[in-house]
# Entry
Amino acid sequence: MTLHRLTPLDLHLRHTFRLSRGASDQRHNLLVELEAGGLVGLGEAAPIPRYAQDRESSAAAITAMVPRLGDPRHFAGAARRVAVPGQAAAEAAVDMALRDLAGKRLGAPIYELLGLDPEQVPPTSFTIAIDDPEVMPSRVREAPGFESLKIKLGGPDDRAMLTAVRRSTEQRLRVDANEGWTLDNALGHLEWLAELGVELVEQPLPAADLDGARELARVSPIPLVADESVGRAEDIPRLVGAFHVVNIKLMKCGGLGEALRMIEVARAHGLKVMLGCMIESSVAISAALQIAPLVDYVDLDGSLLLREDPFEGPRLVDGRLMPSNRPGLGVSRRR
Ligand code: MG
# Structure
């Protein structure tokens, strides 16, 4: 197996994507192409700045990993075995490229190789980032077909923003504070969040504040979702009592093998499972969609937030993002 190509993927967002910890208009992802037996498998890394990753560190990790991968037929655990510590996005990219190759070689989508039924994919939520409350009605109008909206909070106008959203739509609302609140903030917010009918609250407190999370979970009428607090399966047991749902992302955990393990571990601990994403093209989104039939909540809108997705494959049908039925990831360059 050889590293066929590494290509920068500059992804431009439709709107400035503002979270509690900063804003961006574009993302610097990386496309990896692995070649074996005349076939090319695609993978995408969406480096996470919070974990000190960038496109350069991802490229260096992938370049170091590929020569050590061995027989492409033995893809299970292969990316993990040669992973560079701290470079989970690179690991995820290699893992999905290997599985794309396997699917293309065997002529089946990855979900089929896993025995999963794509009809079981839950609807995806659609994200609205932090912005002025006055623009919320127009943001809501851009997302008519989605069953639920995920509103980013942790900014100066949380209550005004969410109230403006609530007045504009009957859609279900989830919120994500991206570690932007303190325990006192969060305790003060719970009541009005519940009044506005919020379904889930994601990562209200900094990941390091697990004691605060436990205290919040004791009184919260709304289920709490761990995102920044969870990376891989081994992080899950200590979240019991602090969160009700874990948000699994390929870029945090290093690929589909680990994501499958996390789903089992979360369920064994009585936790529900969300499948999330970073800002990604349809390559990485398609990888996550392969296992989406196994989860409770889907938040795989990364490619839908782009001005232009360089790849195509998944289709949005009645608020559900469905994986393509083509082999492997089922994605190709958009013409
Ligand atoms: Mg989140």
